[in-house]
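Here is one chain, start to finish.
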Amino acid sequence: MTKNILVISFHPNLSESHANITIINSFRKIENVNFSIVSDIDLDDKESINLIKKELLTYNDIILLFPFYWYSAPYLLQKWFEKVLTKDFAYSTNFLLKNKKFNLIVTAGGSEQDFSSTGKNKYSVEYFLCPIYSTIEYIKAKHTGTHVLYNAHGLTQEKVDDIIKDIIL
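Its structure:
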């Protein structure tokens, strides 16, 4: 059975990101993958938010793609959570995203060693992403994986293909 996947990009300057563009272009080659580029959406527009919510309901597999900097996800992801994952849509009386599968693809400029207990950042990227994992759990969706692409400035097509294969299969 072919998955129907929505990739949501939260890069605030996508045109300047070799890594995130490479990932998106690789997904574009795959059937049944659609995209939402949040930097192109007015998150303060109620009609846009309603369209996002409607779109989310049509997918079971959702990929959140974003760069990791300042020990977090970009503000666009937080704003998207606040505007889209609202009461009576994502939680409370209605959990309309219940059992949807959320995968994270995170690009990081640093090395895996940098994000270890002995590295300069002292903690893993996954540690810093705990609020996102908690959000996914709170709306009763499923966190199905986090794929951190370290040294993103030197990202290879082979590495991207491996990650995509892991998600698609």
